[in-house]
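Quick one:
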Amino acid sequence: MAMVKMVEDGAAPKEVQAVFDDIKATRKSDWINNFWKVLASSPATLQRIWSNVKQVMAPGAIDPLTKEMLYIAVSVTNNCEYCIHSHTAAAKAKGMTDEMFAELLAVVGLANETNRLANGYRIPVDEQFIPKLD
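Output:
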């Protein structure tokens, strides 16, 4: 259950509806998901986060599927059920297969384990791994 009242599409204040309309247009969708409806309880937060999402998730040097898979990896590590579901759906829509998802989770699990080992042992970083800045 949400901690605040969700703002519904079509019944939102003007500034919120403008963001909702942009979300639908950008995503070529006819609905607003619960994440945005909850954030709409704070119009400034809604506008800021949507602006950040549009910028970061836009086409760039990293392809859209890889961005979604990175989002899944972080969401799994942070245990965000909502983001795991929403970004897995988005990644599948962009071509992620069940085999890719399984391999992604294997990498996430391995990285979390080895990160904890490296942190626990306080392993010094090899000089060769540190970038030489000119």
